[in-house]
C-alpha cells in the first residue's frame, strides 16, 4: 500500500507547482493557500510562530515565498517595536504613579509638623508647586475621612501663617479651598476652618460643620 506524507501526497513525490499553475499541490496546501489569499492577515498569524513548516514554504511559488519572508521580517520588527513601546509605557505609568504619591504619605504628626516648619522657614514666600503639593495632601486627607488629623494640621498651619506675610496668607486660603473640594466630594459640604488674617482674606470664619468633629 502506498504511504502518504503529512500533507497528502505519496512519499517521494514532488509537487511541480509554479507561479502560473498550482494544481499539483495537495488538498491541504490548496486550502491553506486559498484561506491565506482570501484573508491576508492569515499570513501574520502563521508568521508569529517560530515553527514554520519549511517543506510547505519551499513548495510555494518563489514570489509568494519572498512575500512571506518579507511579512515574517516585518512581523519580527513590529513585535520588537511593540515590546519597546510596552516597556516605555510601563515606565511612564510607574513615574506618573510615583509623582502622584504625596511626599507626606506615611508621616506621623510629629514628622509632618517638622516638615511644614522647615518649609515655612526656608522660603520668603511660598512657591506655587509647594502649595499645590500640600493642598493635594490636605484634600486627600478629607477624602480619606481623616478629619481630626486634617483639622489639627490646618489649625497648626494657620497659627504659623498668621505671623507671616500676605503671600503666605493667600497660600493658606488656596490650601483651604482645595481641601474643601475634598470635603465636598466626600461629605457634600465644607469643613469649619479658620480663614481670618489681619492683612488679607475674609475677616470671618467660613465653612459649615457637616460632621461631628
TrEMBL record:
This is DNA repair protein Rev1 C-terminal domain-containing protein. Residues 1-27 are annotated as: Disordered. It holds the Pfam family REV1_C. Residues 15-26 have a biased composition (Low complexity). It comes from Henosepilachna vigintioctopunctata. Residues 111-191 form the DNA repair protein Rev1 C-terminal domain.
